[in-house]
Amino acid sequence: MSNMRLFAQVNPDYAGVTYKVDEWEVPREHIIQLEELGQGSFGMVYKGIMTKLGNDVNVPCAIKTVTENATERERDSFLIEATIMKEFHTHHVVRLYGVVSVGQPTLVIMELMANGDLKSYLRRHRPDYENGEESSPQPPTLKQIYQMAIEIADGMAYLAAKKFVHRDLAARNCMVAEDLTVKIGDFGMTRDIYETDYYRKGTKGFLPVRWMAPESLKDGMFSSSSDVFSYGVVLWEMATLASQPYQGLTNDQVLRYVIDGGVMERPENCPDKLYELMRICWQHRASARPSFIDIIRMLLPDANDNFKRVSFFFSPDAMDNSIQPGNGNISPNISRNLINFIVFDFVFHFVYRIVR
């Protein structure tokens, strides 16, 4: 693992990127800062109003800031990640609204996701969560979990079509809107908030080992297939209301366990269908895992009506990439387990209709 430093600290998709003022620059006077939302990796995050966004006025937004004592390198990293997000335009990836880079403080203006990150959302909806109110929020229903799952898969399918490898997909990096839509959040900005989710391997930088695929842990290899492995861990987080993956194992033990082919057991009360999807995502060979498009196809029977209208999967861009649902193509890396999943899903819905 001598070459792990590059993979642990630098996403190659950011390599060689420098920030330049462009059409995304927003006049500072167009931003109204309101109350604090929480601490971000680089500084405080605020709720705000963007007085003008295209033809819209007074648009609610999230304002990300950099602390006054941030280094020049930290400011550059903050802006570079915003630069990457300028390339993403799809419903299930959090939208960048603009950047204020002229003057201080530097601001990145994002779509407001009122329910915060998915990890915090899930934990707030545990039955034993204490929020000072008479009744705790109800945990998400199975139908809601499947809807969240297909929305995350759709955002990741878009990134895969853009040849972008996330490298750190986890519930903490997914964001929940007011209407409970889940979107892939901004990239690389949550490590400091959830520092215990990352593991420093010697001097090799921080690694989210509990979400990483075996080939990433062993050889530093990252791909859309390794993102699929991480997606399986996100499903496990949803099924457990954001418990820590591989509970009872140290980070070193997790690293060895996953490299040796170990996977997590089925969570308590987890439906067969959901756990089977996790297991398919955790195939040891990267080529045996489904693509995100395959995963969307598997989850389509559980998607709500709005998914067809807003998703990348049903968009003209997806059709241009020859991955539309009607083209008859299935990714060549589909394993026998995936075929079994499709058969299981058909039987599940058939029996469900009979019982009803």
TrEMBL record:
Topology in the lipid bilayer: Single-pass type I membrane protein
Main location: membrane
Binding of ATP, residues: K64, R172
Active site: D168 (proton acceptor)
Cofactor: Mn(2+)
Catalyzed chemical reaction(s): L-tyrosyl-[protein] + ATP = O-phospho-L-tyrosyl-[protein] + ADP + H(+)
Keyword tags: ATP-binding, Cleavage on pair of basic residues, Disulfide bond, Glycoprotein, Kinase, Magnesium, Manganese, Membrane, Metal-binding, Nucleotide-binding, Phosphoprotein, Receptor, Repeat, Signal, Transferase, Transmembrane, Transmembrane helix, Tyrosine-protein kinase
Cellular localization per UniProt: Membrane
Binding site for Mg(2+): N173, D186
Domain (Protein kinase): residue spans on this chain: 31-313
MF annotations from Gene Ontology: ATP binding; insulin receptor activity; insulin receptor substrate binding; metal ion binding
Enzyme Commission designation: 2.7.10.1
GO cellular component terms, A-Z: axon; insulin receptor complex
InterPro entries recorded: Kinase-like_dom_sf, Prot_kinase_dom, Protein_kinase_ATP_BS, RTK, Ser-Thr/Tyr_kinase_cat_dom, Tyr_kinase_AS, Tyr_kinase_cat_dom, Tyr_kinase_rcpt_2_CS
UniProt-listed GO biological process terms: glucose homeostasis; positive regulation of MAPK cascade; positive regulation of phosphatidylinositol 3-kinase/protein kinase B signal transduction
Pfam families: PK_Tyr_Ser-Thr
UniProt cross-references to PROSITE patterns, sorted A to Z: PROTEIN_KINASE_ATP, PROTEIN_KINASE_DOM, PROTEIN_KINASE_TYR, RECEPTOR_TYR_KIN_II
Domain of life the protein comes from: Eukaryota
Entry's family note: Belongs to the protein kinase superfamily. Tyr protein kinase family. Insulin receptor subfamily.
Protein name: Tyrosine-protein kinase receptor
